[in-house]
Amino acid sequence: MGMSVLGGEDHLDPTAHWAERELANMGLRAKVSYASGNLGASLLYNAFATFALTFYVDKKYIGLDGVLYGMAIAIYGVWNAINDPLFGVLSDRTRTRWGRRRPYIFIGAIFLFVTYLLVWTPPVTGLPLAEPFNVPIFIYFLLTIIAFDGFYTLVSVPYVSMFPELYESPKDRSQVQLFRQLFAALGLILAFTMPMMIETLSRTMTVYDAYKYVGLALGVVGSVPFIISVIWNKERKELSLETNPSLGPTLKTTLGNRTFLIFAVAYLMIQYAFLWMQSMLEFFSTNILGIGKGDVTILLLAMFVSALPFLAVWAAAYRKYGTRKCFIATMSVFAISLQPFLFVSGLTQVLPIMFVAGVGLSGYMMLPEVMVSEIIDEDEVKSGIRREGVYFGMNGFLGRFGFVLSGLTAAFFFGLTGYQGGTPPTPEVSLIFRLAMTTIPLMAMGLALVCLKYYPLHGERLDAVRKAMDKMHMEKAERLEAAPKEEKL
Question: Which of 64, 72, 198, 297 has the greatest number of CB atoms lying within 10 Å of its CB?
Fold first, then answer.
């Protein structure tokens, strides 16, 4: 959408009009405000993924049976996967005067806050559950995480779908993605202070009240940035001139895209590796490695202190070497970094592991969405239709099965050992969980690297896509200039 659509400069040459499109979207204020939404996405997602297991399973807190927890996460993972493409297609096909994505982000953020708070306020008081196999708490946990994830997806998929539409060049994408991941890192830091906040508040109130107030605070801090992200950014109307197909044909086309499928399988394995490590880290550290709950925050902060400077490194490497090579490098670093978990114990021995893992984590934060954006660009060149929502949604659909795999894996190991935490483990139990923390990410990353070896969208092919897309967008901008007024609304 050019300036003439906003009013007052219809005499501009269409080529110049396209080249200076949506200057408001390209300014530093707009870029930073858009990027700030990633603080909310990171904070809410990671606080839940990292600390829900300990809160619900550990006998020091609720003490729900680990198998029930794993089952709930697996079911949630299926819903998590299904709702991504549904809401992605919905936002692609929506047309309002405020844009395709912005209404969902603005309104959905309010309900996101409410459902997130419910996750941390289960109907229990006083002591842990007398009977761990508690079906009502299992149902409550399952329903609240389903509701939370529904609104999280309704907000986050339209939010990330705006990224490749607003920013097309490698320079702009790497800059905005760097901003986004800096906000994500801030969100992660806030998320990973949760154990410290819980421990502090628990000195003056019950642990259940502590989780309630921390959940309230994180919910507010996580929801507001989504609203800020759309205040100074407007969607480009020339990219929604064509009507997107309905759900069935859209999914068929997307799943027929070989480039996307190769990436999606690799991303599923990468998600599985990171989610498994993330969800187990607090439980593993406090029960197997003998690290205090408050010190878990130190471990997590160490990983992200290490990750922060490497965000800029991966952004520069992406512009020079491309996403494929950088992704292979960063995933290799992460998988190798976890192997010392097989024999280390204590805070001082684990800290170096977390610093090295942060190098791999930074690439995981920086590269996947840029890679999906390039796939979307190629799809538009082939089809003439811009479908950010369905591609990010389908990527979520396939990648979110990492939650299913992580949940089933947790259920398997808790069922195999019968260990619920809260007491010193036997040597056999300790060895099993150590093997789980090292070999599962290593195998998952190995499968991901095999997929990335055959990923085709790089080098000359990617350069050709960018040139063709630039030409296509110039033509679409000219069509919008000549379109009837009602089509510009």
Answer: 64
* Strand, helix or coil for residue 214: helix
In this structure, which amino acid lies at residue 243?
A: T
Q: Is the pLDDT score of 19 beyond 60?
A: no
Residue 193's CB is within 10 A of a number of other CB atoms, namely: 18
Cα separation values, 188 from 43, 108, 362, Å? 5, 21, 12
- CA–CA dist 45, 359 (Å, integer): 21
pLDDT in tens, 189-213: 888 788 889 888 988 988 888 999 9
- Rg, C-alpha atoms of the chain: 23
Sorting pLDDT into bands at 50, 70 and 90, what band is 245? low
Quote the tokens at residue 433. 């969980």
User: In the chain, what is the straight-line distance between the N-terminal and C-terminal CA atoms, in Å?
Assistant: 10
Tell me the whole-structure pTM to 2 decimals.
0.74
Counting every residue written for the chain, the total comes to 489
Q: What is the DSSP string of 220-255?
A: HHHHHHHHHHTTS----GGGGSSPPP-HHHHHHHHH
* Whether the predicted pLDDT of 120 surpasses 90: yes
CA 355, CA 484: separation in Å to the nearest integer? Answer: 57
Give the chain's domains with CATH numbers.
15-476 (1.20.1250.20)
Number of H-type helices and E-type strands within the chain: 20, 0
Task: Give the other-Cβ count within 10 Å of 127's Cβ.
Answer: 7
Structural contact between residues 468 and 357, judged by C-beta atoms closer than 8 angstroms? no
Alpha-carbon distance of 170 to 172, in angstroms, equals: 6
Helix intervals (H) in 322-426: 323-337, 347-366, 368-383, 388-399, 401-417
Q: How far apart are CA 483 and CA 487, in angstroms?
A: 6
Q: What pLDDT, in 10s, does the model give residues 266-312?
A: 999 988 998 888 888 888 898 999 888 778 878 888 887 888 888 88
If one counts every other C-beta atom within 10 angstroms of the C-beta of residue 209, the result is 14
- What would the pLDDT profile of 442-475 be if each residue is shown by its tens digit? 999 999 999 998 999 998 999 999 899 888 888 8
Q: What is the DSSP string of 124-159?
A: --SSPPSSSS-HHHHHHHHHHHHHHHHHHHHHHHHH
Rounded to the nearest 5 degrees, what angle is found at the Cα of 483, between the Cα atoms of 479 and 489? 115
In whole angstroms, what is the distance from residue 232 CA to residue 363 CA?
Answer: 28
Contact 176, 324 (CB under 8 A): no
Cα angle vertex 369, ends 367, 371, to 5°? 70
